[in-house]
Amino acid sequence: MMRMIYFEMGSSRESLTPFHFEDIAEYMDEEFHGYSLPHLLIELLKRNNGGEPIQRYFKTQTNKYPIKIFYDVSGKGSILLHESTNIFENHIFYKDRFNSPYLLPIAETSFGDVVVLDYEGTPNDNPRVALWFHECDEHGVNSQPLEHIADDMASFLAMLTED
After folding, report:
1. Of 16, 68, 72, 105, which is most buried, counting CB atoms within 10 Å of its CB?
2. pLDDT digits (tens, 9 = 90+) for 94-127
3. Given the DSSP bridges, would you call strands 128-132 and 114-118 parallel, antiparallel or unpaired?
C-alpha cells in the first residue's frame, strides 16, 4: 500500500486519461527499452498529476532537501523546455547533461537539483531514487556523482515529511 502524499491545492495538472498512459508506455519503450515507471509513481500520478507536495522534505546521508515540484505527464508543456514540469520534456532537456542514459527526472528540489529514477542495474519497474545535482562545468557536463536517496519508489515516498 502506498503512503498518501498530499499536494498544495491547485498545483496538480489535469487528470490522466488512457491516452496519457499510452504516451507513457510509448516513451518508456523508445527511450528506456523495456523499462517502465514504478507502479507507485503511476498511482501518484493518477491521484495528482504532478504538483507541489505538502510532504516535501527528504534526507540523504549528507543533507535535507525540499521538493519544489513533482513533475507531471501533462500534454500541455511549457514553450520553454527548461521551464516545463513534464517528466518526459525534462528528460529530453537533461539527458545530455546526465552522466547516465538510465536516469529519468521525476521531481525538482527548491535548489534546482533533480530527483531521478536510476534504472541502471535494477528490475525494469523498480528503479532506485537518487538526486542529480544541476551544477555543471563550462561545457555543460555534470561531474558530481548521484546522491542515493532510496532503494525504490516506496522507500522514497515513505521518507517524505512536512518539515
Report:
1. 72
2. 888 887 899 999 999 999 999 999 999 998 899 9
3. antiparallel
52 grid coordinates: 507541489
For residue 67, give the C-alpha cell.
Answer: 521538493
- For the chain, state the CA radius of gyration: 15
**What letter does residue 140 receive in the DSSP assignment?**
S
Q: Does residue 66 sit in helix, strand or coil?
A: strand
Question: Which residue in 41, 96, 43, 33 sits closest to 71, CA to CA?
Answer: 41
Contact assessment for residue 60 and residue 109, using Cβ atoms and an 8 Å cutoff = no
**pLDDT for residue 59 is more than 90:** yes
- Sign of the dihedral through C-alpha 122, 87, 54, 14: negative
> Residue for cell digits 532537456?
93
Give me the pLDDT at residue 77, please.
Answer: 57
Mean predicted lDDT score pLDDT of the chain: 89
Cβ burial of 126 (10 Å; 0-12, 13-18, 19+) is middle
